[in-house]
Amino acid sequence: MLETLQTIQLILLILAGFFAYYKFFREGIHHPRIEFEIEMEELGVYSRHRIIQVSLIAKNKGLVEHRFDGIRLSIRGMLKDAEVSQLKNHEPRLCFPEILVDKMQIVTKKSKYFFVRPNVFQAFPVTLTISPDVTHVLIRATFKYGYTEDVHSAERAFELRQVPSASHSDQRAAAG
Q1: Are 33 and 61 in contact (CB under 8 A)?
Q2: Measured between alpha carbons, how far is 117 from 103 in angstroms, rounded to an integer?
Q3: Considering the entire predicted model, what is its pTM?
């Protein structure tokens, strides 16, 4: 009887070891699990500049806090009446030929890092100006997890509202 009880205890101990290995190392629950999304809002045109707000949304689905030491933002665009083309060597992906923002660092030296606690959705908004002649943008944001060199990225395209031409706006202002 004592021998059977010891055998059951040994089996349970081995199973607990496998469970712990699976939970902590295979599933990686002690590492951050970030879902990363991009949203954009047009804020209008002021002094011949289109104002947009790009929000980088981090959702921490893990059980530990995640610190962003760096987040890079890139925006490419298509100008009104530009010829539509495909990205070379990546056909049929659409080409956005105009570089509007090139790998801009969102985390400043002053702030050092941004953090997102477990089960928290955190937005990192960035307000920018771009040309009013841009009709479509492709926004890409990237970051690296601190414990690896793997790059995590999000990418999304947006259509922008048509901006009335300056001469049309000037005519309306003169008539009013």
Answers
A1: yes
A2: 25
A3: 0.73
> What's the token pair of residue 33?
């699990």
- How far apart CA 146 and CA 68 sit, in angstroms, is 8
- pLDDT tens track for 123-142: 999 999 999 999 999 999 99
DSSP, collapsed to helix, strand or coil, labels residue 90 as coil
Q: Is 132 in a helix, a strand, or coil?
A: coil
**Residue 21: what are its φ and ψ, rounded to 5°?**
-60, -45
Amino acid 24: pLDDT: 60
CA atoms within 13 A on the CB side of 34: 26
Encode burial over 134-156: b for 16+ CB neighbours within 10 A, e otherwise: bbbbbbbbbbebeeeeeebebee
Closest CA relative to residue 161, chosen from 140, 136, 139, 138: 136
pLDDT tens column, 22-61:
666 555 566 667 788 999 999 998 888 999 999 999 898 8
Name all contacts of 6-12 with Cβ < 8 Å and 24+ positions apart: none
At 156, is the pLDDT very low, low, confident or very high (cuts 50, 70, 90)?
very high
